[in-house]
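Let us work through a complete example step by step.
Step 1: write down the sequence.
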Amino acid sequence: MKHCALAALVAVFIVVVTAPAQVIQVAPATEVARETDPKRFSEPHLAIHPTNSKHLLAAVFISWVQGALEEIRAHERCAAFVSLDGGATWNRHEFSLESCFDPQVAILPNGEAVFIALAEILNIQPRHSIWLIAFHSSDGGLTWDEEPTILGRGHDHPALAVDTSSAKRKGWIYVSTHHEWRDGNGQPASGVFIARSRDGGKSFDTPTIVRPNNLHSFAEMPVVLSDGTVIASFVDDTNDQPKFERRRAWIIRSTDGASSFSLPIFVNDVCGPPPNFQLSALVADTSDGQFRDRLYFACRQNGGGSIIVTSSANRGETWNRPGVGVGTPAPDPNARRVLTMGVNRNGVVGVFIAERSFKIGEACLEFSFSASFDGGTTFVAPQKVSSSSCGKTTADEIAARMFPTYGDYFGVVGTNNAKFRLMWVEMRDGHSVLLTTLGTVAP
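Step 2: predict the structure and record it as tokens.
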């Protein structure tokens, strides 16, 4: 009974700190591209040039919502989109990769770009294996090198971070993944994989692999602070039954360019389940504002609750547990809620939320955006960005089951004019449409 009472008090604390005095304005959406069934876009990722807001780069994988699971996976493809006019027009590039998914992109301070993904590669043995790969672009994503750099197998959820400001390592790229392997006794092991590139993604140094404990550790996101400190997050769990009631979130830090990492630093234990898998988010404020180098970690509250944001003002050493709730939705274990975060030039942190709620005979998908002007102490009530009916065809049912929100992350970047560029996927007139817009936030 004491635990129940404590949980109730924590829930009350989490959901009451909102800031209704600020304003969010969302511009009409611009269509980037569209596909027709059985093809559908999933998991758009967005990057912006560190000093040129008109230069945007996006990546997405095209899922296949027809046939058996093996056929669906075999048809997955990856594409990149580049815009040099602030998102008004986009050029598309298709990568010649099979079973490609989980793409991410970044633009370096010198204008080069990198694309990473998981994919099956033709003429590479063994066949039907999923490899972690990276492509380099010398012109910011307009063209790409013909051959990728291959970083190995056994990876999931690759994520990118770039050092954009430090004196010693500006332009270095860091790739983190959830890595699994067999230990010396043949038992499954997992940990945080960090690979470093000092030449724009054309090659990578020997990776660092951190196994923080004997649990199943889900590596999630890396960020880089203004002095080049690399921070990676993970959430631990167990493969045994019953699973933990709550997942514990942690970070590890490196001050030597990801050659070595600190002991894990505890963030919080408010994350789900349900559902069984729910990706968290980590972002750093690299602006020149008052919250420079502040860290923000966000996840969905356990028990099907709201999005919770936990922040740290001292580079991850301590966190404002249990965190602050974004919006006040009632707990719903059946609804799918995922999020992505970004920080703009003024140090405003934005939270982009996708939610699919399942109703009788209909599944609906809604996107909303919220922001904090005070370093994560309070958040404005979420503003709806878009909503769409998810349809009732067989393909719609497959998509709702396999890709309930069309991904575990979406595009959010802060622009140099203190706005936010958003990117997401929805169904319009029977087509899968990749959309983008600008969000303006003001006190």
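Step 3: interpret the result. The longest strand covers residues 431-442.
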